[in-house]
Amino acid sequence: MSGTLFEDAPRDLFSFEKRAMSRGFTAIAGVDEAGRGALAGPVVAAAVILSPHGDYTGIDDSKKLSPRQRELCFNRIMSQAVAVGIGYGDAQLVDTVNILQATLQAMIGAVRSLAVVPDFLLIDGISSPNISIPAQTIKKGDSASVSIASASIIAKVTRDRMMVTFGDKYPEYGFPVHKGYGSAAHLNSIAAFGPCPIHRLTFRGVREHVRVVK
Questions:
Q1: Fewest CB atoms less than 10 Å from the CB: which of 23, 119, 179, 206?
Q2: Which domains does the chain possess?
Q3: pLDDT score of 212
Q4: Cα dist. 85→6, 56, 106, 107, 178 in Å?
């Protein structure tokens, strides 16, 4: 893959950015989230504005990369991007407003935390947050746009690091291993110990084990 944003590649991850630039937009932010399907921990969103002259070799959907590849890409993005913003929706917010709304709120937080105000958003998925910036949603956008792919990596690595830290606070659940997703070991831990403060109490696999204090 070429390292230049405006050069074509066999699978052109730059086409959406080039199309937006052809319409006159200059600060295009890719937006994506991580942790939407987890049983514990926050949903984390990232917004990334890339420099048109950076080296983005190897950048792809975070789910297609190994942990080591994600870390390398994370460092490359952080060192070369024009701006990176991160937003969060904790487990309590997820339980209060539902996971979709918590995700959209996290995306708004990520966009608003950018040091450079974007004039166009490329958003992974089919739902767009309520924000007054022109936007395009792209189904499976993390496999179609380098900016969204970059946001997926930033969100994933950021969230994984948080879950490792939560593992120190709640060691009985094994968060550093499964990152809060519904593995058999995690489900067994919830059944044995009940939910902890970062579990999503409205999610199946957790709600069955909420202990009501009478």
A1: 23
A2: 15-161 (3.30.420.10)
A3: 58
A4: 23, 18, 10, 9, 25
